[in-house]
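Curious: explain these tokens?
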Amino acid sequence: MKVFATGATGLVGANTVRALVAAGHQARLLVRDEAAARRYYARHGVEIEGYVGVDILDQAGLQQAMQGCDALFHAAASISLNPRLAQQTYRNNVGATKAVMGAAIAQGIRNLVYVSSYSVLFKPGLATVDETTPLAEPTEPYSRSKRDSDEYVRGLQEQGWPIQMSYPAAVVGPDDPKLSESNYAIKAFITQALMQTSAGFQCVDVRDLAQAHRFLLENPVQGDACEARYLLGGHYLSWVELRELLERLLGYRLRTPKVPPGLLRGFGAATDLAKRLIPFETPISAEAMSFITEWAPASSTRYLALSGAQFRTAEQTYGDAIRWLCASGHLTPKQAGRMAG
């Protein structure tokens, strides 16, 4: 199988491409920085069939670049917290999804996997989330772009196009081409503070996610495409459970202040107001604080039943992530504690 992949220099895309090549498939990558992509894959001993530098919004160019491919993996998304770039981020993400999926369909590719996000299903007050949960109505441009892209792809499914959709929770793990948002969060939990509040943190190991994407590409849609939506939640831990796990792995106590959830959500709302007056870049927002304090566990039952797979343990995921953070210089050996070396 020859797979055309986007987002192949991000944590999810890079690990998925490596899993595909390891399984004997070929990959053609859409990249913005070919030199960086070549360095990453060469470092891991992965041979790539080809690199393409077409504009991701150029549907005609993408269709030409996909010639000879028989599968598509679309994971590319622009992430920016800069309020000045909010509308550009929205247009790029939704436009890219339409261009990439449109090019693949026009090229006649009928094995398509689109990477969405758990966040498009998140609503405060839910006890759990699964594939039947209706799409949410997020307000931040990036979250809105993922939600509206998801709605567009669902529309294609409803028209009968054989597209499979994955919905990862936070993605954590080693071999990150950059320092992704969730791996940065693990670093911050260790070096800054791990707040103790309501709800908890859910993450999927990037290696498990990569194997899930490989499985989906090797097993195209059979039957109703609208059923081909898969939550990939990995493990959910309350903030207390996460503190206990990290301290056990590290071998020392973390800074873990107790913060009322209402205070965090109020702080997020105040930050949103301040950003309207003086735009500045920050991960703090009302939406982010709602995620932190009101996260509902996501069930991965549909995918696990279909594939027969099992996720790595939380200890393996966090332990390997910390080892990688240390080995790559994001944590000092002292900060990595027992996981150093």
Q: What stands out?
A: The two ends are 38 Å apart (CA to CA). The chain has a mean pLDDT of 93.
